[in-house]
Design a protein that fits this description.
- The protein is 33% helix and 9% strand.
- The chain is globular, with a radius of gyration of 23 Å.
- A five-stranded mixed sheet has the order 1-2-4-3-5.
- It is α+β, with helices and mostly antiparallel strands.
Length: 255
């Protein structure tokens, strides 16, 4: 058998493997209607929307935080928008616009240097949508200080969390930023206050150093009195200060 014939036989006998999936972590959260084409349809469906979007973009420009992420992505509402019968995009009330500025500064100055460019998958949520999406009652999304993001550069979840946590431990307190993690590649940033939540894939605190810093001034519970002849009592063990790692559709402190 010639070398060419042998090579052809080997190729024919080799299994056909599927091509590796393209890196698209936003696909777990973005449905048709909330993608770029959906945005175009939404903005042109109502003549009042383009002027409102333009005004919002100009505000971000004046605040020095335009183009941290594309402006239209900051108008994405909730992943559960279809289930809730809500709009896929919404321009937040003008009074809430200042709340996103510090968040975007942190994303620009610390998130992007740590993991590269990011895509925003959810930002402002009105109260009705927040309730339907099982968001926290005091969610930072209600006041447009929060944005949920995914990394655009291919990176595994462990490395992403390690880099974001390291950056947060250094700069998060100075910016007054909260950092939390969902399952998969989605994470949350807000500028409500310095804090962190979520667990890594090993089940331990994702950002242990940040958590220590955030709780450094916590007051320990008082010791319980021991009655004569009674077995020694111990102070009650506080509940886990970290919320359970949420799924993509459930509620969480970040929502």
């Amino acid at each position: 058998m010639s070398a060419v014939a042998a090579l052809l036989l080997m190729i024919q006998a080799s299994p056909i493997l599927p091509a590796p999936a393209a890196w698209d972590p936003a696909a777990d959260y973005i449905t048709p209607g909330q993608d770029a084409n959906g945005y175009r349809s939404w903005v042109f469906a109502d003549p009042t929307r383009m002027p409102a979007v333009t005004a919002f973009h100009n505000y971000l420009t004046s605040a020095g935080v335009a183009y941290v992420v594309p402006t239209w992505q900051l108008l994405r509402t909730a992943t559960d928008w279809t289930k809730c019968g809500a709009q896929p995009f919404e321009v937040p009330p003008t009074g809430e616009w200042p709340n996103i500025v510090q968040t975007l500064r942190y994303v620009r100055d610390d998130v992007v240097p740590a993991v590269g460019q990011v895509e925003a998958v959810s930002a402002y949520r009105n109260a009705t949508l927040n309730r339907c999406a099982l968001g926290a009652k005091e969610s930072a999304h209600l006041h447009f200080s929060a944005v949920d993001l995914v990394p655009l550069a291919a990176i595994n979840r462990g490395a992403m969390m390690q880099r974001l946590c390291a950056s947060h431990a250094v700069a998060g307190q100075r910016y007054g930023v909260g950092l939390g993690f969902y399952t998969k590649m989605r994470f949350h940033v807000d500028s409500t206050k310095f804090r962190t939540w979520g667990r890594n894939d090993e089940g331990t605190t994702a950002c242990a150093r940040s958590w220590e810093l955030a709780h450094a001034n916590d007051v320990a519970p008082p010791a319980l009195a021991v009655l004569p002849g009674a077995a020694p009592l111990t102070a009650p063990v506080p509940g886990d200060p970290l919320a359970p790692l949420p799924g993509s559709g459930g509620g969480s402190p970040s929502k």
